[in-house]
Amino acid sequence: MALERTLVLIKPDAMQRGLAFEILQRFERRGLKLAALRLVHADEAIAGEHYAEHVGKGFYDGLIKYITACPIIAAVFEGTGAVAACRQTMGATKPVEAAPGTIRHDFGLEIGRNLVHGSANTDDAAREVEIWFRGQPVLDWKRDTDGWVFE
Ligand code: IDP
Ligand code: MG
Q1: For residues 5 and 77, what is the distance between their CA atoms, to the nearest angstrom?
Q2: Within its chain, how far is the Cα of 39 from the centroid?
Q3: Which ligand is in closest contact with the Cα of 63?
Q4: Reduced to 3 DSSP states, what percent helix, strand and coil does the chain have, rounded to the nearest 5?
Q5: pLDDT at position 1, please?
Q6: Best exposed site among 86, 121, 135, 141 by fewest CB in 10 Å?
Q7: Element (DSSP H or E) covering residue 73
Q8: Distance of CA 106 to the CA centre of its chain
Q9: How many CB atoms lie within 10 A of CB 59?
Q10: Could you give phi then psi for residue 49, rounded to 5 degrees?
């Protein structure tokens, strides 16, 4: 399986509820390697760029208001199959349809307060890493435990 990078956002509800590091820890414990981390209060421009695919949908205005409500954490995680692995750890978009043990199931109830974002595919991941880490370093580093996570 290919080594991939994916973009994770700890959304405002997770920040406000004190769940940010508990959520980050789930990705970390899975074996994914942190390549970049940033606390950022998104403005409408960056939020609009990130959620461009949803322009015109009924929930769009609420989504922009939600994601810009307070500082959030943007992270880049790296690992084999990292894009799908992160989505699996997050669970389905609707928390009531997310599998038990996933972040959205374990901490959420409503689709508009689903705590976490993860890129949908590798193209989106590259695009989103560029949006949130423009001009900022994404590190390529060898973790001493890599050989115990990646065969
Ligand atoms: P994803 O985050 O699982 O990729 P998308 O369908 O790409 O899900 O939607 C992006 C985000 O927009 C969701 O995570 C959620 O925060 C929000 N969203 C999607 N559909 C709705 C809705 O029907 N009501 C409110 N918010 C929504
Ligand atoms: Mg999506």
Answers
A1: 6
A2: 13
A3: 1
A4: 45, 20, 35
A5: 84
A6: 135
A7: strand 72-80
A8: 16
A9: 12
A10: -70, -45
Place of tokens 């205005």: 61
User: Tokens standing for 50?
Assistant: 């990130």
Closest residue by Cα to atom 17, ligand 1, is 112
For the chain, which domains are there? 3-41+71-135 (3.30.70.141)
Ligand 1 pocket at CB < 6 A: 59, 62-63, 93, 111-112, 114, 117, 120
**DSSP 8-state assignment for residue 17:** T
Please answer whether residues 125 and 4 qualify as being in contact, where contact means their C-beta atoms are separated by less than 8 angstroms. yes
- Determine the residue type at 139: L
Reported pTM: 0.98
As a whole number of angstroms, the distance between CA 76 and CA 6 comes to 6
Please give the mean pLDDT across all residues of the chain: 98
pLDDT digits 0-9 by tens, 25-34: 999 999 999 9
pLDDT in tens, 83-120: 999 999 999 999 999 999 999 999 999 999 999 999 99
Which residue owns the Cα nearest ligand 1 atom 3?
A: 93
